[in-house]
Amino acid sequence: MEYSSITKRRYVKIAVCFSQRKTKNGRAKEENATSNFQAVFIDRDGTIGGTGHFIHPQDFSLFEGAQEAINELKAAGIKVFAFTNQHRISKGQATLEDFRIQFKEYGFDDSFICPHGSQENCECKKPNPGMLYEAVKKHGLDLSRCVVVGDVGETDMLAAHAVGAIKILVRTGWGEGSLTEFRRNWEETVPDYVANNINDAVKWLLSLS
């Protein structure tokens, strides 16, 4: 699949959508597009650092430039939320608090973490959109004005697709595999942008103005 042409068309569509709002008299009002993004949900493993596999927060390292990317979103006035499945919590290998502390240190405004194992049939484990709906209740969000950034098509992208959020897939972590050998697992949707890494994802997002 040729993603460059797809993302170019979707770039134009999203830019137009967020740069035009109707005033009360029906005229289009030009606005800064980035001001209309309410929040960006960012996966952890393989997206901002690590390998795509579980690494305890004490041993986890960010990718080069990932902290700057988070800071750029916050400087633009966009809320930044962690959005991650961490089933090892259910096995006692880490705690929710371990992750919350980590995300707070990175500057995330909030963290949404699924601690459940695959057999627990919860509503929060991606690709279920439960964590996104939890964020709506907690922060009063319009998910069509939110963005999900992640490296796994069959979890991150499907969760975003389920709620109508903008979808950015990064090629780091499991990203390349998501675009090739595992593409069949999420073939019902297409990312709005395929980024080389978290820095590229944020650069593209902030360019929508």
What does this entry look like structurally?
With about 210 residues, the protein is α/β, with parallel strands linked by helices. Helices cover about 35% and strands about 15% of the residues. The strands form 2 sheets. The protein has a 6-stranded parallel β-sheet with strand order 5-4-3-6-7-8, with helices on both faces. A two-stranded antiparallel ribbon has the order 1-2. The chain is globular, with a radius of gyration of 17 Å.
How would you describe this structure in keywords?
two-stranded antiparallel ribbon, alpha/beta, 209 residues
Q: Quick recap of the structure?
A:
This protein is α/β, with parallel strands linked by helices and 209 residues long.
Topology, pairings included?
Elements: H1 3-19, E1 20-22, E2 28-30, E3 39-42, H2 66-75, E4 79-85, H3 96-106, E5 110-114, H4 130-139, E6 146-150, H5 153-163, E7 166-170, H6 175-179, E8 193-195, H7 198-206
Parallel strand pairs: 3-4, 3-6, 4-5, 6-7, 7-8
Antiparallel strand pairs: 1-2
Structural class: alpha/beta
The Rg value, from CA coordinates, equals: 17 Å
Mean pLDDT: 88
Separate helix tally: 7
Mind summarizing the main beta sheet? 6 strands, parallel
What form results from the Cα inertia axes? globular
Low-confidence stretches: 19-32
Order of helices and strands: HEEEHEHEHEHEHEH
Strand content: 15-25%
Termini distance? 28 Å
